[in-house]
Amino acid sequence: MKFGVVVFPGSNCDIDCYKVLSNVLKKDVDYVWHDTENIEKYDVIILPGGFSYGDYLRCGAIARFSKIMDSVVKHANKGKLVIGICNGFQILTEVGLLPGALIRNNNLKFICKTVPIRVENNTTPFTLNCEKGQVINIPIAHGEGNYFIDEEGLAQLEKNNQIVFRYCSEEGLIDEKSNPNGSVKNIAGICNKAGNVLGMMPHPERASELLLGNEDGLILFKSIIDYLERGHFE
Ligand SMILES: NC(=O)CC[C@H](N)C(=O)O
């Protein structure tokens, strides 16, 4: 089982992802520079958070044209796993692996805080150890995390069970008050129709060690590992 963490100029959560996989979970993981073409040896590709290409034009809009992204699209189309966290989620929407777009937060400010999110779909490889409706606390840190999708797209997401996480209250209620950035229907993370590509704005890698105050994010990485070890759902 091998993980690849893609590094773009301006990535800054690549090291956090790498450390969680190597130090905390003792897994085989490489940093993969953005001009790499052959990524066949990786089972999971992680597009980490950060400010790829300085967020110029639009977050993720330049990184999407990196050489590695053609290979990431092929990797995803083979059914292999891809997870995009924050800037990685933005890149996945820009490249078309996930629908919708991440636009400026509705308060036009960069938001950095830990928020509760509710697991809406626990049948993905990334959430199979979660309970449906489980609330986990995960940090967000973004200026453009306001998820937008048109009504038709939203209907598709709902029909195909592609909404994986929503921002919620501590008790798990989905309400306006618990929506930090204006996202449509409090959406914090979605997957593609096949379920092998996940994009999420919250940062599970920043909440994966008790020493750092919170390990709620670890359940995602452990789900991926269990999925790969079993090769199927139970
Ligand atoms: N932490 C991140 O990945 C930030 C993503 C992007 N730079 C934004 O501000 O929205």
Describe the structure in your own words:
- The structure is a single chain.
- The protein has 234 residues and is an alpha/beta fold.
- The protein has one domain (2-230): Class I glutamine amidotransferase (GATase) domain (Rossmann fold, 3-Layer(aba) Sandwich), CATH 3.40.50.
- Helices cover 23% and strands 25% of the residues.
- It has five helices and eleven strands; from the N terminus they run E-H-E-E-H-E-H-E-E-E-E-H-E-E-E-H.
- The protein has helices at 14-24, 67-77, 87-95, 151-159, 218-230; strands at 2-7, 28-33, 44-47, 81-85, 101-103, 111-119, 135-142, 146-148, 163-167, 187-191, 197-200.
- The strands form two sheets. The chain has a nine-stranded mixed beta sheet with strand order 2-1-3-4-11-10-9-6-7, with helices on both faces. A two-stranded antiparallel ribbon has the order 5-8.
- Strand 1, helix 1 and strand 2 (28-33) form a beta-alpha-beta unit.
- The radius of gyration is 16 Å and the shape is globular.
- The two termini are 19 Å apart.
- The relative contact order is 0.17.
- Bound molecules: glutamine.
- Residues 49-51, 55, 59, 86-87, 141-145 line the site of glutamine (GLN).
- InterPro entries: Class_I_gatase-like, PRibForGlyAmidine_synth_PurQ.
- This is Phosphoribosylformylglycinamidine synthase subunit PurQ.
- Its EC number is 6.3.5.3, 3.5.1.2.
- The active site is at 86 (nucleophile), 203, 205.
